[in-house]
Sequence to fold (246 residues):
Amino acid sequence: MTLGIMQSYFFPYLGYFSLIDAVDKMMLYEHVTYRKRTWVNRNRLLNKGTGEPTFITVPVSGIYSNILMRDVQIDQTSGWQKSIKNFLLFNYRKAEYFEEIFQFVSDLLKDNSTSSLHEMNASIIIAISVKLGLTTDITYKHDQYLDLEQKLMSEDDREIPIKLQRIASVCHEEGASIYINPSGGQDLYDPEMFYKLGISLKFILPDSFLYSQFGKYEVPNLSIIDCLMHKGWIDTREAIRKYDFK
Fold:
C-alpha cells in the first residue's frame, strides 16, 4: 500500500491533490505542532489588476507555544468568510467558471459546524477530492497514534529524527510499504534511511501546470480555487493527474 501524510492545508494548490491522487491512503495528520505563516490557515489567490498573488487567511485564536494542529480554533468573530467571498467576487467575477465555483466555495465557507481549523480544512479537502473524482481513502482523525506521539517526544534518538520516526511508525501500523512525499522533501529525507526502516520512499513530481488567468497572467502554485475558476473541474482533474515520481 502507498501512503501519504500531510497536515491539512486551507484550499491547497494543485500539487497537494496530485499527492492525494497518487496514494492509496492519505492521512491528514493532526498531532503535529501548529506553525504560523504556513499553508494550514492561508493560501494565495490572484489580484486581477496587478497579477500579484494575495493571501486569503483564516484567523485563529488562543494560540500558544507548541499547540498542536488538532487544537487550533478558528476565530469566528472576524467575518473572514465574507472577506474571502468579497475578494472572489471582485477579482474572479470574469473567470470562465466563476458562477459554479463561487457557489461551491461559498457553500464550504458557510459551513460553521466546526470551530476546529483542522476539521474545517479536512472537510474542504475531502469535498474537493470527491468533486474531482479522486478515490483515495482520506482520513483526518488519528487518536490511535496519541501514544506514539508521547513516546516520540520522550525519546532522544539523534540518529533518527522524530519526524522520520513518526512516518516510519505510522507506515508500519498502516501496513504501507511505500511512502510518497512532496518533492520539497528531497532535501529533508534520505531514501536509504527509509530503506533501513523497511519503507520505500518516493517523491512525487507534479507537472508545472500553467494556464491563462484573465488572458494576461500565468502565475503558478496558487490555491486550487484559482485553477477551478479558470479551467473548471474536468481540466483541473486532468492537471492534477499529471505527475511523475523520483
